Amino acid sequence: MRRDKAWPKGVGENLVACRCMRNMPANAKRAPSPQGRGGRPSVGKEKVRAGASSPVALRKGFGSNSPIRTRPGSLSDAEEEAGGTPAELTKERVHVWVRVLPSSTAGDSPPEQSVVVVDAEARRVSVLGAGGEMEASVVADGVVSPSQHLASAHESMLGDLVSFTASDPSGRHCSALLCHGGGTEGGGRSPALLGSDALAQQSAVRLLSAVAGNGATLYLAAVLISMEILVDLLEPPSDVSIAETQFSGVHLAGVAWHELKASNEVGGLLDRVGGSLEAVGRQMSAGMCSRHTCVLVLRVAPADGSAYGNVLYLVDLAEPSLLRESQVGGLSVDDYCSVNTTLKVLSKCLGAMGSRRKQPPPLRDSKLTHLLAPALGDDTGKVHALVYVEQPRRQRREAAAAVAWAAKAGSARLKKGTYASSNSKALVAQLQGVLAQLDFASEEMRAEMREQISPDPVALEKLRGAQAAKVNALDGKAADKAAAQEALSVQLEANVAARHVAVAQRADVEAAVADLRDQVAGVRSGAKLEAAMNTLKTSIREEKEALASQLAEMQARREKATASLGELAARGAALAAGGPECVSALCEQGAAYHERGIAKIASLLFVSAIKVLDATGRSRSTQAVRPISALADLYSAEGMEEEAISLYKQATPLRAYP
Predict the structure, then answer these.
(1) Who's near 535: CB < 8 A, 6+ residues apart?
(2) 379 within some domain
(3) What is d(CA 378, CA 92) in angstroms, rounded to the nearest whole number?
(4) Can you give the CATH number for the domain in which 366 is found?
(5) How many whole angstroms from its chain centre is CA 566?
(6) Three-state SS for 265?
(7) pLDDT digits (tens, 9 = 90+) for 454-483
(8) Are 179 and 192 in contact (CB under 8 A)?
(9) 171 lies in a domain?
(10) What residues pair up with 62 in beta bridges, in sequence order?
(11) Would the pTM count as exceeding 0.90?
(12) Cβ neighbours of residue 657 under 8 Å, at least 6 residues apart?
């Protein structure tokens, strides 16, 4: 084992003792060390006094993966297996806080004897066995004693996660807070997130304060995981799944996101989540075997939607499985009853993350670990864990299991690219399999590839012709644009001249109206009656001349339209007369190309003949039988039997038409 730094006195001897105890048989008697507490620790059942400054690990902790720490700076089993010193394990690891729950008393009965020893200065929590020996121990990042409230640890436990999530919303960072144990309060809620400790509300309020004014938006979603089934607690009928995309990464697909705009909205939305959790829990309840995991997701994303944003997962883990003897030698109920896959797979992942073995953690074996893969499977995320520990002696085994789980979580390291490595390895293996099936490139293969890559000369010629046609068309469009602009200029000048004419005509009309008013006044008075009659005669004569001019113009337009109709009729007759000859010529050319083996051009000629008949209105006549039948023969010769049969069926009824 490497020793990059000097270890505290006695640590090397402790490691030797741990190795020796592992190699001893299970029924071997372990003799006490003659050195006692001054040198290597004694392996007998030594009593551990409450408040001892340096408790000694006497045996392996509860469970096969339970780390035991002998003194601050010493290595646990998982750390020793990981092959690193405590200073190395503090880098990019899971940070653990332990909260020791206060003892509950019933009536006037005295409180039960506690089996939990708390050393607040060393941040150590130990669980004593039935004989007073140490059964499990952990040195955590923070310890909340029974006399303290969890709010004292909010800044150290939540502050780092909140600042990490609120910084750079376009970075797609992932962090998580895992809450283990604690029992349940009213409505099936655990005290951690939605209960008395209210970590969910604290996190949401802190995030709202952190993102205020930086152009980011906070969203909340809630999901229940039971027997690997995902249920949306805000929209229960929704179909929720775990997906992975390039934009969002690993995320919850189909979940309902609710935007949080103010702190006063958080409480109501979390109450709604709690009510839904209680209702869904009753609906999916399976008695004592029921295990539910509640996941609250806080996402900070840019307001413009340019990125998915940073995600903070608040996970309320399911209660651990029952710890009782199963009446089967060597097994317990937890070993053979798979009622809590989420917690089991998470524990396996934490154990693999704290091991020096190269085997990656099974992050895809459960829905929760797959969802937390960006945080657990890379060193860019942050993972904190909060473990609740009971004090009473009757819950000694549960307390030891919780402390052992906390030690396992604290020794788990966040390694770079752990989650992505599985995909890349699979892709490399797949590519290696494909390459193994390929032979070395031969000259024949090179020639075939060159032939396939090189363009068809005929197609190139057609492409050049199409390019030239497009260039000519663009030139024509440019000429049309210039002509249109010139015509627009002429029209603008004509409009200006017409405006001047209209102004003059308006002046004439106004003068005529004034004259008419004078005439009306004269007629009424009798002084200008004769002048009025002359004016009326003049108006009638001018009107007759205008009507005659309009009639002549209409007759000229009629003659022009009659001439146009005659010309169109002549063109139609010429087209109808030349259509059969064109069809016949196209069919003959197509047959010639068919005989030369150029099926592609032959099919185009036959299709053109059919379109000519369609344009001349003869597509339903006997003249269409020849091109359709020739095209069907071509398809049949090329192996396109279905298309040939369809064309034969289309040509058969046409023989009855004239």
Answers:
(1) 515, 516, 519
(2) yes
(3) 9
(4) 3.40.850.10
(5) 68
(6) helix
(7) 878 888 888 889 999 999 999 999 999 999
(8) yes
(9) yes
(10) none
(11) no
(12) 620, 621, 622
Asked whether residue 186 is assigned to any structural domain, the reply reads yes
452 is a domain residue: no
Indicate the number of domains in the chain. 1
Q: DSSP labels for 307-354?
A: S--EEEEEEEPPPPPP--B-SSTT-BHHHH--S-HHHHHHHHHHHHHT
Token pair 């047959």 is found at 591
**Domain span at 229:** 150-323+336-390
- Please tell me the least confidently modeled range out of 23-37, 458-472, 538-552, 616-630: 23-37
- Under 8 Å between Cβ of 570 and 588: no
% residues pLDDT > 90 (the chain): 23
- The gap between the terminal CA atoms of the chain, to the nearest Å, is 101
Please write the tens of the pLDDT for every residue from 68-86. Answer: 333 333 334 444 444 443 4
| Angstrom distance (rounded) from CA 295 to CA 408 | 21
CA distances in angstroms from 360 to 353, 356, 368, 369, listed in the order given: 7, 10, 16, 13
In 176-226, which ranges are continuous DSSP H helix?
199-211
Distance CA 4, CA 292 (A): 44
pLDDT band at 181 (very low <50, low <70, confident <90, very high): confident
DSSP string, 352-371: HHTSSSSPPP-TTSSHHHHH
- Rounded Cα distance, 79 and 73, in Å: 11
In this structure, are residues 388 and 381 in contact, taking their beta carbons and an 8 Å threshold?
A: no
DSSP labels, 390-427: --BGGGHHHHHHHHHHHHHHHT-B--TTHHHHHHHHHH
Strands 310-316 and 95-100: unpaired
Residue-wise pLDDT tens digits, 104-126: 665 556 667 888 888 888 899 99
Q: Please provide the DSSP assignment of 8-36 as one string.
A: PTTHHHHHHHHHHHHHS-TT---PPPTTG
Question: For residue 413, what are the β-bridge partners?
Answer: 93
